[in-house]
Amino acid sequence: MTLRTRLCAVAGGVALTLALAACGNGEQTTPEEPAAGTATEETTDIATQVEDVHNDADTMFAQMMLAHHDGAIEMADLAVEKAGSEEVRSLAERISAAQGPEIEQMTSWLETWGEQTSPMGHEGMDHGGMDMEGMSQEEAMAELESLSGAEFDQRFLELMIAHHRGAVDMAQDELDSGENPQALGLAQKIIDDQQAEISEMEELLQGL
């Protein structure tokens, strides 16, 4: 075999090897990636299931606290108009601003659970069944309407302290008997927030 023949044979073998390698690479497949959004959809389903989990204590907590928050906001909004001191007015604004979103949250839960927003409709609820120093919500509002200046501030603080203590008791009942994780979390938040506000209002009372 001549040198030229040998070189041609070698070149042909190299070309064949490269061709086979190219064909082999073309047949390789990449692992299939999971469909976009699958993990997110599963996470959403789990979150929805968690929100649906509830018992009678969760339902009662949301229903009664809704009405109770309504009463607090009614009193706070009046204080924004009539408070004699800026400290009391600022506190009232913060109470109203904090409890509004919580009302929306609890309303959403009750709708998700297929429950009414109150056990017997809003009529006859007396703002969560809580009174303030033996006074109903309507009686407390009537008294506050009749006051002004420092007298208003003192009575507002006294009644709101009693109102907050009622909310803390209701939230503690939820922690003791509730089941829904979101409702339990809100109950603890209400306890923490309103106990802090009670301490603030007691200090304001001492300064009047």
Automatic annotation (TrEMBL):
Pfam families: DUF305. Residues 1-21 form the signal peptide. PROSITE patterns: PROKAR_LIPOPROTEIN. Gene3D superfamilies: 1.20.1260.10. InterPro entries: DUF305_CopM-like, Ferritin-like. Keywords: Signal. Residues 58-205 form the DUF305 domain. This is Uncharacterized conserved protein, DUF305 family. It comes from Georgenia satyanarayanai. The lineage of its organism: Bacteria, Bacillati, Actinomycetota, Actinomycetes, Micrococcales.
